[in-house]
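[Amino acid chain]
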Amino acid sequence: MGLEEQKEEREVLDSIFPDEITDISETSYRISIALDVPPIPTSDPDPSPPTLLLTISLPQTYPDTPPNLTLSLPPNTPRHPHLTLPGDTPHLLSALSPTITENTGMAMIFALVSTLKEAAEELIAERVAVVREAGEREAARAEEEENRKFMGERVTRGVFLEWKERFRSEGEGEAVEAGAGEKKRGKGEEKLTGRELWERGLVGRVEEEVGEEDVVVGVEGLRIGE
């Protein structure tokens, strides 16, 4: 492909990217690639979608020889938390290698732009997914901790046997105390014999309480049989 063919490809690209392409020279130009990325779960507000600048320089032997490619970010743009340049440049450019191999000998710039956009968006999506999964795990852990406050002790066989033994012991203790109480009450209601009354001095106290008048009345009430 000579210079004329390269110009023809450039004109086609201009119709596809009318606002994104900027000429640098007859054989080099820059294409701005806006990326569509998922929202970041932990970011509020969400950062603006990043934009890549792909600078393309065509050698005279293009497309039999791959173009020279350079990646950069627009100047004075906020840094996206999940895309860094030049840190991610080797990964993104290496993603273009299969496309270059498949299209050698043919116009390939549009295919390269499409592949680069897809690779960058996939890279960011993977990183966002990692953050989202970490947040979901943390939320699940916090929910589990909160639910644990309202849950009783987990009943296992060992716990059940321990409860059973404790219940049996407490039941036996209550039965013993109840029996002792009944026996004590029974003893309190037991009638004393005359001998027991005498031995405890209860009879003496009764006689002491009887007055002389009661004795006289008692004697007068007696009648001697004829």
Remarks:
- Residues 109-148 form the longest helix (40 residues).
- The helical segments are 3-16, 89-94, 97-103, 109-148, 157-188, 194-199, 202-209, 212-220.
- The first strand starts at residue 21 and ends at 25.
- The beta strands are 21-25, 28-34, 51-57, 68-72.
